[in-house]
Amino acid sequence: MLQTLAKGFQRSLRQSSIHHPRQLPFLPKRQLTTMAKNEFYQYSIITALMDGAASDGIPISTLLENGDHGLGTFIDMFGEMIVLDGQVYQMKSDGSIVHISSPSTTRTPFACVTRFEATSTSKASLKGADLKQEINQLLDSHFPTGRNHILAIRMDGTFARIRARTAGGQCKPRESMMAVAERQSEYTFQNIKGTMIGFRCPEWVTGLNVVGHHLHFISDDRQQGGHVLGFQTDGEVEVQLSLLPKFSMELPTEGEFNKAGLVVDAEGIAACE
Amino acid sequence: MLQTLAKGFQRSLRQSSIHHPRQLPFLPKRQLTTMAKNEFYQYSIITALMDGAASDGIPISTLLENGDHGLGTFIDMFGEMIVLDGQVYQMKSDGSIVHISSPSTTRTPFACVTRFEATSTSKASLKGADLKQEINQLLDSHFPTGRNHILAIRMDGTFARIRARTAGGQCKPRESMMAVAERQSEYTFQNIKGTMIGFRCPEWVTGLNVVGHHLHFISDDRQQGGHVLGFQTDGEVEVQLSLLPKFSMELPTEGEFNKAGLVVDAEGIAACE
């Protein structure tokens, strides 16, 4: 999320303080998961998205059986997914946000979740100048021996500034994630209250998922959000963390996944994220 | 398994038709697993072995809860593991083979298993001239859309020739798998009846496991075996296969794993395997 953006990204739309007339209702925590706490689950692999395999996937309801905290995308990479307290939101490139009220009829080609239960809770202020290092210092202070494990991250509070992007979706079948990313919308939110949800993954996830931090954001009023590119907190935010020593993954057995070349492109993934 | 051996390997011991006075008893299939059929499970990652993190692990009994067919190694990389019908054997570099009769008191730092149930059974003759291509053709003929999935492989029959190696173990803590491999013993078995057990893994396992074919062999009399480097069948052998679309992995949360650099070295892994 924190890498220099590829040149093509500069064409992206920049907006701030977009007005959304319809506020989404506040929804209670939903618990569908049958998974043990703090285990990592993902459907498909990021390399399949890089190869443009995004036309089918599992129902969101199946995803929610495996966790209540996470992120991902939707069919044809149409928007960013955030899974917060078992509720799923689709954050679209036009700035609108849709609550997935019928998880059994909406599908995802790639997503990752955990049944999150924080084992470490603290408050932290992040200035965003060298955010990657700041986040690493924060996480390492709580999990000094956790660098080889996936960590689940949740931050709640007021953010002075968030730079976020939302993918607009594929224009044609099998269009690569790199091509989709070139058309993404980019937003800057200021003085915004909300929640960041995501993970920090070690290098061994290369090809499977995003190495490093990967955070999605949604505002408390559920009107603004996206894939986080950078941010700065407004004073302290609440930070909840857990370490996920078990990893499980389910792969598509039909369709585009089987046809994809799946040549791991670590640099390409980093450029997109 | 089929790569050109590194120079250091040439120092390895070469023997054939070793005599083993004590024959291991034939053991019935043991079923401890609670895992669903044809799901892939692994403990730790191959990159941890590359980094020499091999001094601790899970009990073999825990491994067997996750599958009855597979391979791996033992504490300090002392020998090759084969899991056949839920029975586990340690194949040592001195040519001896030990049946693990007490799985709860023997541990593994790295192993992978499945609860194997073949969905495809056939007979095949493999000449071994270009074995990698021959095996791929065989597997692809049964799973034409399976190239992006892990396949479980079992071959039973008479082999005209098998070239195998067994790792002798670490000489000091944290010694790398590459260094251990330089001291491995290499054997050639001729006209030998037995079973090959293993997997073919796609490129996305890079860093986690061995990309390509990975087979271990044990003779029917349980006197000879090892990590397969090459082979030729004597006529047809029985080939059983299944496709494993679910992947699960458990990582060590203490000890050497946390200290290891875990920098993925795909070429190094290939050279060792």
Overview of the structural elements:
The structure is a homodimer of 273-residue chains. The first copy, chain A, is globular. The N terminus of chain A is likely disordered. Chain A has one domain: 60s Ribosomal Protein L30, Chain: A (2-Layer Sandwich). In chain A, strands 1, 10, 11, 12, 13, 14 and 15 form a 7-stranded mixed beta sheet that branches. Chain A starts with 13 loop residues before the first strand and ends with a helix. Chain A has 273 residues and is mainly beta. Chain A is 15% helix and 37% strand. Chains A, B: GO terms for molecular function: acetolactate decarboxylase activity. Chains A, B: One of its GO terms (biological process) is acetoin biosynthetic process. Chains A, B: Belongs to the alpha-acetolactate decarboxylase family. Chains A, B: Keywords: Acetoin biosynthesis, Decarboxylase, Lyase. Chains A, B: Pathway: Polyol metabolism; (R,R)-butane-2,3-diol biosynthesis; (R,R)-butane-2,3-diol from pyruvate: step 2/3.
